[in-house]
Amino acid sequence: MMEHLPVLLVIVPLATALISPFLSLLSRRLSLTVIQCAFLLNFIQSLLALQRVLSQGDWHYWLGGWNPPYGIEFVLDGVSAPFAVVATGIAFLVSLYAQPFFRKDPTEREPRSLFYVLFLLMATGVTGVCVAGDVFTMYVFLEITSLSAYGLVALGGNRAVFAGFRYLILGTVGATFYLVGVGFLFAATGSLNIADLAALIPNLTNSPVVIFGLVLILVGMGVKSALVPLHFWLPDAHTQGPTPAIAYLATAMLKVFSYAMFRFLFTIFGGYTNELASRALEILGWLAAVSVIYGSVMAIAQTDFRRMLAYSTIAQVAYIPLAMAIGTPFAIAAALLQVLSHSMTKCLLFMLKGAMHVKMHTTMIGKLRGMGRIMPICTAALFIAAMSMIGLPPASGFFVKWQIVTEAAGTGKYVFIVVMILSGLLNAVYFFRVLENAMFLPPEGEAESHGSSCRDDAEEAAQVSPHVESSVVPGDPAPGFRGELPILMLAPIIILAVLIIVAGVGSGWILDNVLNHISLPGGGAYYG
Amino acid sequence: MAEIVYDCRPLWAVLISLIAAGLILLSGRHRNLREFWTIAAAAGKIAIVWSMLPIVLAGKTVVCTPVFLGHGLSLTFRVDAAGLLFAMLASGLWLITSFYSIGYMRTLKEEHQTGYFAAFAVCLSSAVGIALSGNLLTFFIFFEMLTLSTWPLVIHERNQEAMKAGRQYLVYTLVSGQLTLAGIALTYAVAGSLDFVPGGFLAGSAPKPMLVLIFVLLLAGPLVKAGLMPMHGWLPRAMIAPTPVSALLHAVAVVKAGCFGVIRITGFVFGPELMGELGVATPLAVLAAITIILASVIALTQPNLKQRLAYSTIGQLSYIILGMSLLSPLAILGAIFHLFAHAVMKITLFFTAGAIYTKTHTLEIDDLSGMGRVMPLTFAAFTLCSLGIAGMPFVVGFLSKWDILLGAIDGGNFWVVVVLAVSALLSVSYLIPIPLKAFRGATKPELANIQGEPRALTLVPLLITAVLALVCGIFPDFPGHFYQLAEIAVRNITAGCY
Question: Which ipTM was obtained for this model?
């Protein structure tokens, strides 16, 4: 079985997606169990695959024994294997979270089995892109991911249908650009295999066909990864879609398009060893810089936590192309660290958004007052997530920022230092506003009782039972520690919050032991 | 190079109060248990930190690298004389402040005490982390943690004004912290290392303008925390926090962390020689001198005792910056020792302010008239430390100022003498009238029914620190060889010139 791991990575979620509707006809509980086992299995598979890549180097797998460039090749290397681990890990946690979420949330309808089918397909696509060894297979998986994403967004209710439709149109335009671009490259080289292309393309970069092909591909991926100015589908889609779907959509799935860009710009076009790719990377870097700032500024302007997260996603995902534009192996490692860090953080934030929705029936930032009393654990997790987003130690976000900033300083790209630092500060502006409300301000009705006049009474009350307060948000009869959230929702939140800190403190270990198999064209290996 | 001892004590010194913070949060319902964790962690921290004193006095350094951070960097703790001085100071005063906090918070029946004690513990972890860090990245990590953990304390009162002060505090410290981050990245790019080296490691690593840029960026964070004008705006407003917070954090941990950062960066990243070459020392000295005078003048105009002390702090902290930027060994010695001297005196002053507040519920200086007769011990402590702040001999503040003065003359900076003299006069004139009025003025009718000293839990700590200020003024090496540590640090920085 181990020998066929690359293809099994894809087959497990795909097969489960096909089986689960039938299983749910038999027994809903059985179907859910199978689905969750499939996600867990997929995660374990990707860990095994990563372990093998780390110990034995790149893993080339020929589907059906057909050798490339004729057959389909699956490749796992130092970039795609860690990516797959992040993607499958997040998928597993989200699948846990989703199960009670749909039961708890009164506003979500009952689309659970449909949700799981689409979600499994989306996960299939993401792992598929990671292992794809040729650009057409990559297209197929990209579209599997995207099409299921459109469907998932549309599950969120009336307004979500419109958002999903807009996403569908723009996403399909992006996909078409990509496909046409691949067509151009095929016309110029006669091959679709990545390794093959990597050998052929660098000599052909003067050809207008190749240049045009690359531009089309980058535009297509730019649309899908919501790079400014091609981002406008994202805020609506990520605001309206059902929470568990977005928790995956905004994290692992959105980054897969940056991964595709990396494959083209570095693996195929040769990165900074090639003039065309260098120029493209420079432009990409600037666009990413603009995205980072734009997303953060727009996030500040939002009053709804959901929308704020959506804009913050635009900013944070752009760290990845930004790091790519720096172009050193360490910067790529930093980009992968950002894939890990941001996936965990944003997934956690969306889970918390769902928790607010379920418990407090609002996601408006101004109405989050008193969250610290109703959901102490979630509020602590929110604090950790905010630290990571802003880039404060010891959360993982800080170490990503630190790696990117040092690499930018080392390569003389000082503008990126400014961008990263500005981004951190803008993040601070909008996250501390949330924290102020959620952690420190008392629930609304109680706000005025904090004068000095009735301090004694309040203190006595607090001393008797500091955690159980009399005033809470209406409609929530039993707040307090024990009834915070169902365990399956709370567990992923706690796991992610802890992992953010662990990944932060352990970032050095991750960089030195996991992300050290990144080899770039032009001899740029880890540690030069 | 000094002999190195590998030991994980520095790590435990940092972790112990982090663990305590967790326990405090978990035992919020039982306030005696909660306070027990605070006291236990404080005592444990003292034991760990002070146990490294003999090693450092023997001229060795304690090193510990628990975690690698990639890129060839690691989380490094390196305990040298300067760092140990600050760590001992912070941990020692934490214990005293803990007792005081308990007394103060319980007397005033403050709310959110669990969060308060937890944040306090995290703050102390960060402060000790800053003290013991062995490279710039470690330093920065704890520096940012300090920023973050102080925020809940600043906004402790949870009202509009406190929230505003908290926001302002964050803006000042986060922005400057990010500039420091950029500086650290540039340092790493030009020097390929971030380890603190006595006397600096940046010499000759980059062209002059680049080094000046790095100097400005690196110092941005520490200088804001140290309240150098014109970056001091957050400090007086943060006085809205409860008095023990002002006492420990705004006289000891936070602002002193800023000053300590200045010492680290000027002494262990750039070094006096390179600073002289770059021509950055004189502007810094001038800025510090301006701050000293201006802050003292503003202090004169403040009608509120805490506000007056806040401006006094701003002025006094700039002595450290001034001492470091005069570049002569004696001035550096004075600066490092002033870290200790000012902490002991200023914490007493804040303690007294808080103790008075628990009785009178007002800190307007006019209202305190006559209170000295009611609380003679409290005001005696206040008077003693006021004189110390002004630089009276036999109080600890004299020693550091005398060294800075000698150092200034040594380096030919005679204008500093004038600045110091004017500052001393100003200090006398903004602090001494307070006890004078308290002992001799007429009692306000609405405060006439106040009887007796504050409760023992608040009174004893402030008496201890006051006595300490007096004893250390005569025997500067009691109780922790602070003067000797400062001397060792100076010898390291100036490569034996002292």
Answer: 0.89
